[in-house]
Amino acid sequence: MTHTLDRADRTARIRSAWGAAWDHGQVEALDDLLSPSYVRRRGPAATPQDRETLKDSIRAVREAFPDLRTEIEEIVEDSDGDRMAIRWRSTGRHTGTFLGVPPTGKPVEVSGATFARFDGRAVAEEWVTFDSRQLLEALGIVTTTQRAAVDPDLVRGVHRKFITGVTVVTTDDDGTPKGLAVNAFSSISLDPPMVLVCVQRSSTTHPALHRASHLGISILAADQLDVAKIFASKGGDKFAGLSWTPGAHGAPLIDGACAQLEVEIGERLEAGSHTVFTGRVVSAHHDDLAPLVYSGGGFFDISHTAPLPW
Ligand SMILES: Cc1cc2nc3c(=O)[nH]c(=O)nc-3n(C[C@H](O)[C@H](O)[C@H](O)COP(=O)(O)O)c2cc1C
Q: Domain 161-304, CATH 2.30.110.10 — does that match?
């Protein structure tokens, strides 16, 4: 009988302390629920929190979402009531800066589960898991949902109006050079020197790039159309019979290219069907050669064009 009362008491105290802290900002209510040596764990990447840092993060969340409401949807206990699993859903309107994102005014919903271990009347330890995608997506930090698309042919037509060069993006995959032709290359910043390339996840080179620390970018010269064709083909040994040199950081660089970079990969951002690799330029070289130009699905030698006065 005492046991049943203990369990009812624990459940009631969770509901009341959570409501006070998360919904009303009365974080001191947690002192009644959480033991002084309480630890909150959120997976291997996150630093565990103690009672005071949990209070700080509740305050920060409530500043960004002042109308926060957390609904406890279910509490499941183990047979002796020492462990409880709490399934919850939080909603709130984003009206204050959060994770560096200024207020969007958007309603945000996040759901998750907390596993609590009691030591006597107090919670000694919690493991928290929640769908962070819901939050990041609502704040516009990531996009994973498909929206009503503009006709792809129309978009393709737009892209054909944009003139680019042609690069070969490479990496050293445990001693084997790998690479593909890429025109989705851009400078991000000069100081610090950063660039990006976009690579389709279906590319056979993609797995090697994903595990690499460095990549090479060779901007092809006007007389390297044959090289562009090799690297626009799928799989196989594209380097056989080709003249290339490993850069100072090990990335294969194509000889005869008009410019070459080596990049220490920073972020790998998943975007649509592609991964955007960003990184810091760690070596750079260019020669006095005209670049190969790609426009409207065709290749051009820019040295035959006339500069416009301006
Ligand atoms: C001019 C040109 C530009 C290209 N740009 C890109 C690009 O930016 N990103 C990409 O993933 N593929 C791009 N491709 C396509 C790849 O090079 C092509 O799919 C290649 O077969 C991939 O090889 P892999 O699967 O062996 O890695 C481009 C192809 C050409 C001809």
A: yes
